[in-house]
């Protein structure tokens, strides 16, 4: 969580002490409704797992200077899982104190960091705009640490979900990686279609694991190049609106890229691709 020079996470002990959370303080910038696209996707993609759980605990990791995103996450999760609980975790104790007036049944705020100080393995960890200013080389260690805290997979469950990504200040453009206990699964691109000139506009919001890999020779660069080409080829559909153009472009992408979702999600200005197709080389 940025702000000053980050600590190196590689080699840190698996458990942090109660007095020294793992990570560094973020700038804390946040806005109401900023994470609506991520929340909407989580509810659709992970709602069934949350409903099946006896105690569906979700963590809003690094919620920032104000608790809006944690409050909104509880509301959105409860539309698909009425018994969901949210724990907002912040490494800055002053922010935790400031959030306490918003605590209520199902919503708690705690001081902590990447050790995720909750008593039971959570079914969801959402970490939005947390790793933005960390070094790229630190991301894998953070992912491993957070995935190890997730509820494990079982015969009837894929386990918990870590959703880590970056968005702009008002949530128009957002890219995130979804990870299970086993590691990364997918990458989702989401946008307000009316604000989009071309799909590669989303490159500036790639998560830390990918943003420095948007260069020739890397898979994510090839994906965005192909997406722009499909977008250009779909220009005749623009007369029916940006949504129809986006849907046509994504449909064309499926010929060469492992898109995992379908028209229901595409209509929302989303597309999800398997992580293996975009993972950095080397």
Q: What's the helical proportion of residues?
A: 25-40%
Low-pLDDT stretches are 1-18
Overall pLDDT level: 91
Q: What order do the SSEs take from the amino end to the carboxyl end, as H and E?
A: HEHEHEEHEEEHHHHEH
Strand order of the largest sheet: 3-2-1-4-5-6-7-8
Which word captures the global form?
Answer: globular
Oligomer kind: single chain
Structural category: alpha/beta
Number of strands: 8
The rounded Rg comes to 18 Å
**Count of individual helical segments:** 9
Q: Which sheet architecture does the biggest sheet show?
A: 8 strands, mixed
Span between N and C termini? Answer: 26 Å
The fraction of residues in strands falls at 15-25%
Protein name: Methylase
InterPro entries: SAM-dependent_MTases_sf
Organism: Streptomyces violaceolatus
Word description of this protein:
The chain has 282 residues and is an alpha/beta fold. It is 31% helix and 18% strand. It contains 9 helices and 8 strands. The protein has helices at residues 36-52, 68-78, 93-99, 136-149, 208-211, 219-233, 242-253, 263-266, 275-278; strands at residues 57-61, 85-90, 107-111, 124-128, 161-167, 173-180, 183-191, 270-274. Strands 3-2-1-4-5-6-7-8 form an 8-stranded mixed sheet. A hairpin with a 5-residue loop joins strand 5 (161-167) and strand 6. The longest helix is centred in the N-terminal third of the chain and has 17 residues, at 36-52. The radius of gyration is 18 Å and the shape is globular. The chain starts with 35 loop residues before the first helix and ends with a helix.
